[in-house]
Amino acid sequence: QVQLVESGGGLVQPGASLKLACTASGFTLDDYAVGWFRQAPGKAREGVSCIGSSKSAFGTAYADFAKGRFTTSRDANTVYLQMNNLTHDDTALYYCARERTGCGEQILVLWALSRLGDWGQGTQVTVSS
Questions:
Q1: DSSP H helices in 17-128
Q2: What pLDDT sits at residue 56?
């Protein structure tokens, strides 16, 4: 059974850091691109970052707001999202998803709109002073 489980969310102050994890089971993680997405109340789901499969040498891509602050990495069974210098605008439910389509900035945008692939249930990140 394919499963993606997000963890690591929480309540933090502006300027803090969090590291989210997306733990995969039921499939070979290396065969898939994994994306991070977020959705704030009243807003559309948007792509945050993605990391490609082994075929693409695990290349990464980031949304403009994530560049320089967020870093995506992966190991055998888990994909991580390190988030630094968090702001109130980063408050959202964060999801991970898997797909075979690859990873890139444009792919990230289309992926968020299409919601293709398999998705986790999300982990809440709240940035509040």
A1: 105-114
A2: 82
